[in-house]
Amino acid sequence: MPRNLDMVALRSFVAVADAGGVTRASGFLNLTQSAVSMQIRRLEEMLGVELLDRSGRQVALTAAGEALLGYARKMLALNDEAMSRLTRDPHEGEIVLGVPHDIVYPVIPQVLQHFARSYPKMKVTLISSFTRVLKSQFGRGECDIILTTEDGVEPEGETLAELPLIWVGAPGGMAWRHRPLRLAYEHNCIFRQSVQAALDAAGIAWQMAVESDSTRTIEASVSADLAVHTVLAGSEPPYVERIAHGGALPELKRMKVNMYVADPAHSTTVTELAGLIRRAYAARNGKQQAVA
């Protein structure tokens, strides 16, 4: 009697081959590493061959693994096509989207609203954190899409916008006039070191007056005129305003808003969500250029 290959195990095998390792593949599949490893072992035992070369630091395919990969892709593609055509709503599952705190607004709520209308059965889990944390999670396969704020962009990333950093303080506040200049930042904020360097280059004394892991704490401290902060232009939080310092504070550099999408994207809906984000930023960039 013919034996049947396990489609779940095949999907894990293809994910490991595409991701280059069990760790990232487990993140894409929302499975534990041990579960993915067990499925690969099950395939190997069924076929009587080793599919992965585990002797090096990185997982590589054996000759048998390379031979199976082509068949596995075809089988999964046929399976997914059949499911899409024969089920009433093929777009079900979860997408994990990571976005830094300071650029959640105004783009992301609009994108999520649009996506929910098109794919009502897809769950989008939004993670709001710092760029360093999000890139680490993405590297482990825990996020499908992340946005970042960075000086540059890595080869697998895509720049959506380039925005200047601006000084913000309490409405009508005076903290920006004090010396040493009192700063308020989250511990993991990627902007703080470049801002400190700009102040040093301008010969302006400064002190880190407020430090916290909570963005709300920073916003409250700045709105109380206890310190100043920096954000990307257009993402000013409520109860603070852009400081009209007239050159008393240094001009700050521009930062890139980048997008990274898991490769391979585990569903067409990941690609669609990335496209919505891309188009939303393109529209926003067009509006800002028109105003300028």
Relevant terms:
single chain, alpha/beta, 11 strands, 292 residues, seven-stranded mixed sheet, two-stranded antiparallel sheet, 9 helices
Topology:
Layout (H helix, E strand, L loop, with lengths): L6 H13 L2 H8 L3 H15 L4 E2 L6 E2 L1 H24 L6 E8 L6 H12 L3 E8 L1 H9 L5 E6 L7 E12 L11 E6 L5 H10 L4 E7 L2 H9 L5 E4 L8 E2 L11 E8 L6 H24 L1
Parallel strand pairs: 3-4, 3-5, 7-8
Antiparallel strand pairs: 1-2, 5-11, 6-9, 6-10, 6-11
Helix pairs in contact: 1-2, 1-3, 1-4, 2-3, 5-9
Protein model, in words:
With 292 residues, this protein is of the alpha/beta class. Helices cover 42% and strands 22% of the residues. It contains 9 helices and 11 strands. The strands form 3 sheets. Strands 3, 4, 5, 6, 9, 10 and 11 form a 7-stranded mixed β-sheet that branches. It has a two-stranded antiparallel ribbon with strand order 1-2. The chain has a two-stranded parallel sheet with strand order 7-8. Helix 1 packs across helix 3 and helix 1 packs across helix 4 (63-86). The mean pLDDT is 89.
